[in-house]
Amino acid sequence: MKVFVVLINLVLCFSLAYQQVETRTDSDESWGPGQYDEGGLFGGHRNENSRKSVAALLAHDGSEIFPPMSNDGPLYGASSKIQQQNQQQYGVPSYRKQPAPRSQSPSFDPRDGTPYTREVAVKQGRLKGIVRVMHPQSGLKNVDQYLGIPYAEAPVGSRRFMPPGAPVPWTGLKMAIKMSPVCPQNLPTLNNVNNNYSKGRYDQLKRLLPYLKVESEDCLYLNLYVPSYDGIGPHAKYPVIVYIHGESYEWNSGNPYDGSILASYGRVIVVTLNFRLGILGFMKPGISDHTTSNFGLLDQIAALQWIKENIGAFGGDNKLVTVMGHGTGAACVNFLMVSPVAKGLFHRAILLSGSALSDWALTQHPLQSTMQVLQGLNCPLNGDNDEVAACLRRKRYSEILNVKIASPQFSTRFGPIVDGLVIPNTPHKVMGQYSDIFSGYDLLYGMTELESYNVLNAVALTYGLLENERDNLLRFYMQNRFEIRPDLALAATLNEYTGILTDPNKSLADIHRDTLLDILSDARVAAPMLQTGLYLAKVNPKCYMYVFAHNSEAGEYGRLSQSVVGEDLAYVFGAPLGPVGPFQTHYNARERLFSEAVMKYFSNFAQTGNPKAPWKDLFLNLNPEDWRYFDVDWPEFNSVNQSFLHLGLTPVVSRHYRQQYMKFWNQKLPEELKRITTSKPYSPYSEFISPPDRRMTTSNPEFVTGHINLFPIKWVLRLRLQLECRQKRPQKKLPNQQMWNKNRKIPK
Fold first, then answer.
1. Which of 93, 104, 481, 556 is in Cβ range 3.0-4.6 Å of 579 for a Cys bridge?
2. Can you tell which superkingdom this protein's organism belongs to (predicted)?
3. Contact 705/698 with Cβ under 8 angstroms?
């Protein structure tokens, strides 16, 4: 009798389970209003009782290659509760899921309705991703996401400070449904008690940093965002856009930048990736000239090699690969354009706010940085490369990250170096004289109008600068950039940028602040980028330039008349059309339209090499009156006209961007300094450096405000005495000094 009762109970349990499975999988009508809340562009999220993490759903099959991530960040695989907390605290969007009809997705989990992609076979094995289901009213098609795919062997143990190795194959089916950890890094301190950041920059970091909490040396992974196949007609061969993240050579990741909307709207495959950073990615791990370095760049090359070999399995065209970078990422892309190691791996480049010619793009004194690290880790300073490398590999990566290193202002501690292999020579020589590799790439490049805005903190940006505060900061910059007569460079620069008619409605402090921002924006980003365009335009006519000219009206920069660095990224990734990545979520109708146009320009360039290629698809906003503003003839950039698109809500074609100042930085000042001398002479500014004002701080790790006192006090007194003796002697000024100092004395 007891056996009979047990059998009856088992039958009832299986019957109920079967009915629940049938109800969830066979009928879309079963998903009632109580189970999903409408959630904007990407639909809704499940109610609290039915929410489950993606990692938990796959725990039963034992197919995960990477261990489950902790639920403490807004990454795929984190719990819905944590995602909601991050959304409330940081503005990070929750990644919602909704069931899709079977015709749109090859399979989905019957317990949760999670739609999975079709199975894809790459060289390392088989994998599946997850489908990002777009809201039906958005007009966008679904996107297949393949997250956390290894493109190289983990750089741990004996592979630390080594070029990336081939990725290890896996057995079974890998579920590529969650992000990998980011590479080890030192994040900026999110503390604005002393107003170190402007309000806009502080909000930006609050949205970005939660994505970077989980780190590991096993971090060489990439993410693919692929337009979903709708089953109609043959598979299209999609162009590929590979995004190299910026912010710094020492922190950030490709994980935060969700390429779903760009992939869906532009019908392109978007790839984001992680690469080694800071000491682990760019330090030269030895003191000899033949030490291998540039591991971060080699990681990027390994990712491009993986894409070339495997992107066809996802419907991508490995002959239409465009590499896009922002800030330091743009400099990396520019270095890849001149590298023989990367030849043949991509065909077009998009540079946003960065160039290999910028003064921050290269580490100027890599051996000094290496010696400081070795000393801090108690590794041999006079050993051979093998001995030094062995010592570095024995250390925990946390020890390496915590080494205290001097950070001269306006310098790059750990970044790419000219190693003769990855970067064969200085960028000026490679692009200007040996252009056989460089000429093979089509180029789209652009910048914002205030690239140096984050150099100053909230106090200086609000209240302006005194004249001596401006000159002190510029003096630090000139000493770091120019080994030849930094004093003369400072005088020439101030003569070029001051003494002209200014806005009578501005205070003198505001004028000094704006002058400083213009000088640093031109010198560090705009002029180097324009010179890069001039080099390429000589050997390849497919060169296009733009100046991004819009700040989001709902953001902190909306009140400014000039665009701020980083404001363009949200429109490139389609943030106004829906929540993606570390961008704000409030945009108006014109800005949504503007983002469509920007994505169309960029995807057209990836497809044809021309951003103004014919627009084949209908737009989400079908009002012809609105779209006619963006139907402009975007001419090629050349050395004669130097045409560019002023890319705002109403785009306008212009010529010769800031011609006077671009010519000053690219021609006038270098030629004059070269003509004067070939070695660094005595300069009083190199010995007597005033400490920076408390307001001259920065939120950009590349612009370190800490001043290093290089001279003991008795040396300073001795040098001061020598200087006073020199000043008593009559000295004849050079003709060029008399010319530049006619109306201005060198600041003291």
1. 93
2. Eukaryota
3. yes
